[in-house]
Design goal:
Chain lengths: 111, 114
């Protein structure tokens, strides 16, 4: 069975600082995708970044980067230069036969 | 560009009532799915479909039915609502059943069962 674990229910970061949100996964499939989504207080789900299991380099999208460590089965999200608008829930997700989500991390950016 | 459209956005039901949450996408996506979101539990997959005429159960299918008669539509039916089904429901689609490509989400439907 596939599983996604996010162990940080809540995180705080000072504005303009970097923050890492943890995600570990468990799968026996050799081919899978890893995703991060942002959910602001308004409720919509916003796609941030994607990493394929065969990708050699870590994915980056603007201020977002995915620290992919395949042997450790981790896919941490790094947000650089945090902004007040980054305050939201963040969900790690994985594809296999289905699309699985973790329980989320609530990030609060402090001015 | 509508994307994934869910209706209604809000609904209050009494225990035992039935209702259908509608989901439509205009992107010709093969894969469609329904999730429920509850505090502290993330998004849990209810049912999904990899194409018209094909549906399958996800992690929490009990109490819900789905059908996929067209590529565009994937309604979720609650036959006899229970308070435990109070939740926020999301419909999501992706282009193919392959392991690449993100899910595109609807705006969500907040359901309260009294």
């Amino acid at each position: 069975a596939q599983k996604i674990t996010q162990t940080q229910p809540g995180m705080f970061v000072q504005e303009k600082e970097a923050v890492t949100l943890d995600c570990t996964y468990d799968t026996s499939d050799p081919s899978y995708g890893l995703f991060w989504y942002k959910q602001p207080s308004s409720g919509e789900m916003i796609f941030l970044i994607y990493q394929g299991s065969y990708d050699q380099q870590n994915a980056t999208e603007g201020r977002y980067s995915l620290n992919f460590q395949k042997a450790r089965k981790s896919a941490n999200l790094v947000i650089s230069a945090s902004q007040l608008g980054d305050s939201a829930m963040y969900f790690c997700a994985m594809t296999g036969n289905q699309f699985y989500f973790g329980t989320g991390t609530s990030l609060t950016v402090i001015p | 560009n509508a994307g994934v459209t869910q209706t209604p956005k809000f609904q209050v039901l009494k225990t035992g009532q039935s209702m259908t949450l509608q989901c439509a996408q205009d992107m010709n996506h093969e894969y469609m799915s329904w999730y429920r979101q509850d505090p502290g539990m993330g998004l849990r997959l209810i049912h999904y479909s990899v194409g018209a005429g094909i549906t399958d159960q996800g992690e929490v299918p009990n109490g819900y039915n789905v059908s996929r008669s067209t590529t565009e539509d994937f309604p979720l039916r609650l036959l006899s609502a229970a308070p435990s089904q109070t939740s926020v429901y999301f419909c999501a689609s992706r282009p193919t059943r392959a392991n690449t490509g993100e899910l595109f989400f609807g705006e969500g439907s907040r359901l309260t069962v009294l």
